[in-house]
Amino acid sequence: MKNFVLPKITFWRAVGTIIVITGLYSTYLRFTGGLAATTNLNDQFPWGLWIGFDILCGVGLAAGGFTICAVTHIFNIKQFKPLARPAILTAFLGYLLVIFGLMYDLGKPYNIWHAIIDWNPRSVMFEVAWCVMLYTTVLFLEFAPVVLEKLKWKKLLSIIKMVSIPLMILGIILSTLHQSSLGSLFLILPNKMSALWYSGMLPVYFYLSAIAAGFAMVIFEAFMSARAFKRDVEMNLLSKIGLYSALFLILNFVIKIVDLSLSGNINLLFQTSQQTLLYYLEILIGTLIPSGILLVKDLRVQKKWLYISATLIVAGFLFNRMNVTITAISSELKLDYFPSFYEVSITLMLVVFGMLAFRLITKYFHIFNEEKVTLNA
Predict the structure, then answer these.
(1) How far apart (Å, rounded) are the C-alpha atoms in residues 236 and 248?
(2) What is the pLDDT of residue 2?
(3) What's the per-residue H, E or C state across 79-131?
(4) DSSP H helical segments within 152-234, as ranges?
(5) What is the pTM of this model?
(6) How many Å separate Cα 37 from the centre of its chain?
């Protein structure tokens, strides 16, 4: 019998352990004391960090799964196939964490199953609920071959592979529907959101930004995995993915500016206010700087600049979703909201769980393509 060896204690493992312990304590308080005991939410401001970050950001950053599947299997660009499995794993874990995060935000989480039997087809939330349930199931089936290969269940593996293309098409449709529908949730707040963020085009903004962020997340995850497992990154593939991300960022930005002009709200960009400053930071960090880097080929093919640009896109995406959920509403309604310690600790715990799950799965299952890829972009 092998001797049990305790894992080496490192700084980040210690930080992660503290975050998990704190998050579990906050979880206990949340489900014994309720929302009022653990959050700074109220009837006037019912959506905060858990919706803005855990749900909207979690779903958007998981978009790499459907974008890479679309590129590799629908548009038949096979060279990006090595990126498919990590992207699907990231998306699958992302959606599982979104579901767990939603359980914290719901006042009565034990009623979450009601959407299955109590149909309300006119509700955007109903459509989002069903799309998330179905797409999580599709991601599970898309990821299943990785597990079946490990278990050597060849017959079941062959069945899954036979239906893989229809599954991916279904996944792309479902993801397209609910990525945009998350923006539709805010269309009912025309008088409760700052005009800098409110628009009838919100579903389009959410969809385009999710595609850009999904591509960026594929790059970010590839670099993090390469550092953790001491492996090379597929620079020729990632640099092209970075270019695609920049193109969607620019398209989204142009539509926003045109929309602000046509709606007569372009003057808001020239006002001195906190929300205008936050809007500029969101655009600068998440669009202008990374797009400027990625559009220059000499910079795009360098690991440092590609990583920086992907990190900025992800940060800008987070900034946007938090602005839409919190800044736009709190500034318009003159309400003060800042997440409580318990809200933050639970969110950080979910992030740590996601990172830990990704690391363990990639350690014990064949996720990455080990073939070396030459630099060419």
Answers:
(1) 19
(2) 54
(3) HHHHHHHHHHHHHHHHHHHHHHHHHHHCCCHHHCCHHHHCCCCCCHHHHHHHH
(4) 154-162, 164-184, 202-229
(5) 0.89
(6) 28
